[in-house]
């Protein structure tokens, strides 16, 4: 059973250099709990860079009792943008810290995204509805499979069926919701049959998207995961070792680009077939009008970055579009105004935007409404 330790950190808000473009879209994150009682066997927080001992993250949960107070101060110092809040722990019923943090986001008009395995979210549906009316709210549920053997990997997490029921409740309230099929455990849950079942159930429970992603390892998680895989599906060990083989003798923390590309294509094709998105659409309306065109162009570039990745395009090409996306996303002057005053040349001289991408932006500006 987990132990809970109260403490008071000096800060709670994480501010990132760039938004999580093409994925969850958040620029900020805040979590009132350190560690997770669910203790999923594949969780990347078991890696040593997060905890000195892998058991710490699910046996000792630290509670930031002053998290709401800190958040109310820190959000007033930053621009309004999407914040990722979470993650619910069973003890949230006692402390109510996430609820208090949602109240602060509602009061200050900050849009919120939550990525959860918990089925406690509906208890705060009133606040999510208020946030959604004022700006934007979104709840992504982590569901990697609905097979009975999932309990081997997620022994303490709420069953996916309960998460799906929570998803249905969130969707009925008019709040955007969907699924993160992350990590799709290689040679375990990344087959088309499993992916299709997750996509179908997401759609049936009101979700509008399924985002797929691979497994991240790192010592001692690597050793822990492989030891369990030998018990669960021994024939998957060899293929898993091959896709995690790096250039050196040691294993990489991430699977090969080829494997990740194939996974992305599978999720995309199945989502297309069943009428769901394989990416989360960014809420442009939450930004000031003078920046919405910039955000729309950045969205196109982030989307293209991802599509190039799952096509296994060259890293140079992928990074060219990613850097251009960051430039447009963080540009403080309306890119349409730049184009109207300086033409194509004005686009070419923007940081990380060369002739080819400038030409694509020009086409976009001719087709995007000034209101976007």
Plain-language structure description:
- By secondary structure, the chain is an alpha/beta fold.
- It has two domains: 3-274, Aldolase class I (TIM Barrel, Alpha-Beta Barrel), CATH 3.20.20; 287-367, DNA polymerase, domain 1 (Orthogonal Bundle).
- Helices cover 45% and strands 11% of the residues.
- The chain has 14 helices and ten strands.
- The chain has helices spanning 56-59, 67-75, 92-95, 97-108, 125-134, 160-172, 192-204, 221-232, 237-243, 257-274, 289-310, 315-330, 335-348, 355-367, and strands at 3-7, 13-15, 28-30, 33-34, 60-64, 83-85, 112-116, 137-142, 176-181, 210-212.
- A seven-stranded mixed β-sheet has the order 2-3-6-7-8-9-10.
- Helix 7 (192-204) links the parallel strand 9 and strand 10.
- Helix 4 runs parallel beside helix 5, helix 11 (289-310) packs antiparallel against helix 12 and helix 13 (335-348) runs antiparallel to helix 14 (355-367).
- The longest helix is centred in the C-terminal third of the chain and has 22 residues, at 289-310.
- The protein starts with a strand and ends in a 5-residue tail after the last helix.
- The mean pLDDT is 95.
